[in-house]
């Protein structure tokens, strides 16, 4: 299996991101104007492509109402921070365009628990994979484990050695460095990733997206191959049957770099998605069991 890709979603990066030192003030001004135009009367409007999506449950991907716009669109950002925010937004748009395009998807694997992985070949011959699953957790709970507590992911996923947040851009965007765990018999070898991670909430849907980025103060580490992923995303949507269940869609799009035959990569990536989901399910079950045990203790304490 490929430990490097069981990052989250979460894991996420835009491989064509430019160096921050090369961004000009005029470009940053244009970005600021674009964001300003998206704000209308307390609403933020998603681009036209979002309204065309047809997810299970007929979720409306039109206007996005925020309790506090400032939590999603931070003000007073420096040029570098604005650039990271823009990268995350662009990665989300491009990833959703890949998922939305129904042409070319083929079934790769099916699991007894209902999980299905599809694949398609993008222009340039890169193969991407889309996992569809239902998880026993609410969208907010998954958001907490996969985004808010991203640095704790290695505690429940043994294929990740470390994830460190290098920069925060408001509450919804961050730059992270991730190192995959060293595993005996791993044909791929250890990889590290420098990524922009971006979250986006809309009604009952939560999007986690982003892609590879550059940080001049954090060059590739000696002894690791720096892989790039993205644009990629995870879509977490309320199941509609139960508030404690979520539909989980994960687009995995990755360039592992190095001299690795495509046949090996294309077998390893879907296996990695399957294993990541297995570890996530186990972690969610343990958390649920812990909460039930604590609830019983609280009940007993009130009776004493």
Chain-wise SSE layout:
Blueprint: H1 25-38, E1 39-40, E2 43-45, H2 48-51, E3 63-65, H3 69-72, H4 79-100, E4 106-110, E5 116-121, E6 127-135, H5 139-148, E7 160-169, E8 173-180, E9 191-202, E10 205-212, E11 225-226, E12 228-229, E13 232-238, E14 246-252, E15 254-255, H6 262-303
Parallel strand pairs: 9-11
Antiparallel strand pairs: 1-2, 2-3, 4-5, 5-6, 6-14, 7-8, 8-9, 9-10, 10-13, 12-15, 13-14
Helix pairs in contact: 1-4
List keywords for this structure.
alpha+beta; ten-stranded mixed β-sheet; three-stranded antiparallel β-sheet; 6 helices; globular
Structure, explained:
With 304 residues, the chain is α+β, with helices and mostly antiparallel strands. Helix content is 32%, strand content 28%. The chain is built from 6 helices and 15 strands. Strands 4, 5, 6, 7, 8, 9, 10, 11, 13 and 14 form a 10-stranded mixed beta sheet that branches. Helix 1 crosses helix 4. The longest helix is centred in the last third of the chain and has 42 residues, at 262-303. The relative contact order is 0.22. Mean pLDDT is 78; it is low at 1-72.
